[in-house]
């Protein structure tokens, strides 16, 4: 009897620890994933920052009516609209409060990108044009492309790594990364399919590489860097959890679990040019480079932040080129699947973004921050919805 009990316990332990079997069991990521992994705690600030409340302002009645209706059925847990440091709209689904931690998914990437900027300011990283192998020399033997891969390529998702981001296979690289495989081993085996700097391809492994560069450059763990250089200085009101892989590496590309109010603070930091209550946490030079409208429009992604998208369509290419000339823009004209021609208009808004429609959206022209957190749904394109709302608030 005891032998059978021991065997059953061993099998259960194997099923829990084995990454492919764990991914089969859970199949698709969900909002409760932090409970499936071991986590470290990112401690809150002893001097928390609080946004003001301005929910009763009648100026925003039409916004409230629109959002109260528009958010129905979107599986949104929290929707905050912040303007000039005041919360002007707040939506909480049943059972949710602003104290409930929500998963960041890939919004975590923007925090890691910011830590790179801080390390650059401090001289720990000399330049983003430095080669990755200056910090991770062990990778040089994998592929000769590492001799040309810069930190900037990795920041902008233009590394060229041979890494498949979209796959539902329990044995795929991204699935193994998410469900606990040793991330240091995965990074240690990286090779290339494209020349660095040539092709934009969103790959989560880039952010993990950045985390390992930060640890090598600073001599500190990514948890300590996050806590000491961002979370506490930003006046976090609550502790956050950050999930680990099976070998105790932080999953830097995802998996911060925190409150909407604390996520909003990364948006406020960039909206204020890296300054937080009189202290420059990251240089204005870094935030200006990250949020430059020309870079955002052309590259779509910069320093681990997403640009929003805004297209202008035409019946023919001549009209599109003419319009570009009138606007003084030099962007490429492309042909849509329906035969129309278009180009991406200049954009000023940007966001930290994760799957399921998670986002911290920033509109510097309107001084607006929007945080949307919730579950996956198909009724509304939530990223477009948030963008539309942010641009409508004057």
TrEMBL record:
Keyword Protein transport among record annotations: no
Entry's EC annotation: 3.-.-.-
Highest taxon, organism lineage: Bacteria
Enzymatic class: hydrolase
GO MF term (any one): hydrolase activity
Keyword terms of this UniProt record: Hydrolase
Domain called Beta-lactamase-related: residue spans: 102-378
Gene3D superfamilies named among the record's database cross-references: DD-peptidase/beta-lactamase superfamily
Pfam families in UniProt: Beta-lactamase
Family annotation (InterPro entries): Beta-lactam-related, Beta-lactam/transpept-like, Diverse_Enzym_Activities
Protein name as annotated: Serine hydrolase domain-containing protein
Source organism of this protein record: Pedobacter ureilyticus
Lineage, highest ranks first: Bacteria, Pseudomonadati, Bacteroidota, Sphingobacteriia, Sphingobacteriales
């Amino acid at each position: 009897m005891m032998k059978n009990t021991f065997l059953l316990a061993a099998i259960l332990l194997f099923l829990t620890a084995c990454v492919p079997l764990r991914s089969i069991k859970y199949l698709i990521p969900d909002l409760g994933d932090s409970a499936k992994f071991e986590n470290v705690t990112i401690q809150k600030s002893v001097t928390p920052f609080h946004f003001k409340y301005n929910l009763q302002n009648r100026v925003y009645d039409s916004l409230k009516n629109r959002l109260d209706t528009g958010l129905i059925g979107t599986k949104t847990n929290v929707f905050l609209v912040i303007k000039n440091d005041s919360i002007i709209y707040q939506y909480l689904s049943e059972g949710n409060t602003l104290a409930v931690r929500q998963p960041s998914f890939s919004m975590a990437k923007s925090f890691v990108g910011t830590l790179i900027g801080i390390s650059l300011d401090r001289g720990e990283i000399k330049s983003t044009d430095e080669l990755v192998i200056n910090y991770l020399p062990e990778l040089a033997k994998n592929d000769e492309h590492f001799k040309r891969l810069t930190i900037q390529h990795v920041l902008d998702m233009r590394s060229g790594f041979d890494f498949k981001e979209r796959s539902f296979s329990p044995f795929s690289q991204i699935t193994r990364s998410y469900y606990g495989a040793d991330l240091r081993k995965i990074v240690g085996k990286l090779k290339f399919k494209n020349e660095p700097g040539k092709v934009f391809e969103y790959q989560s492994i880039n952010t993990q590489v950045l985390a390992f560069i930060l640890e090598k450059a600073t001599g500190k763990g990514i948890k300590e860097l996050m806590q000491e250089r961002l979370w506490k200085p930003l006046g976090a009101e609550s502790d956050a959890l950050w999930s680990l892989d099976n070998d105790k590496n932080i999953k830097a590309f995802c998996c911060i679990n925190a409150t909407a109010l604390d996520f909003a603070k990364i948006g406020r930091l960039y909206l204020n040019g890296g300054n937080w209550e009189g202290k420059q946490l990251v240089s204005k030079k870094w935030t200006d480079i990250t949020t430059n409208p020309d870079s955002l429009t052309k590259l779509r992604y910069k320093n681990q932040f997403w640009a929003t998208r805004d297209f202008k369509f035409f019946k023919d290419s001549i009209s599109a080129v003419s319009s570009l000339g009138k606007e003084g823009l030099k962007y490429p004209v492309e042909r849509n699947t329906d035969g129309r021609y278009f180009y991406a208009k200049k954009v000023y808004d940007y966001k930290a973004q994760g799957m399921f429609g998670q986002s911290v959206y920033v509109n510097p022209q309107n001084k607006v921050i929007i945080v949307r957190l919730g579950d996956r749904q198909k009724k509304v394109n939530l990223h477009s919805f948030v963008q539309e709302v942010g641009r409508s608030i004057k």
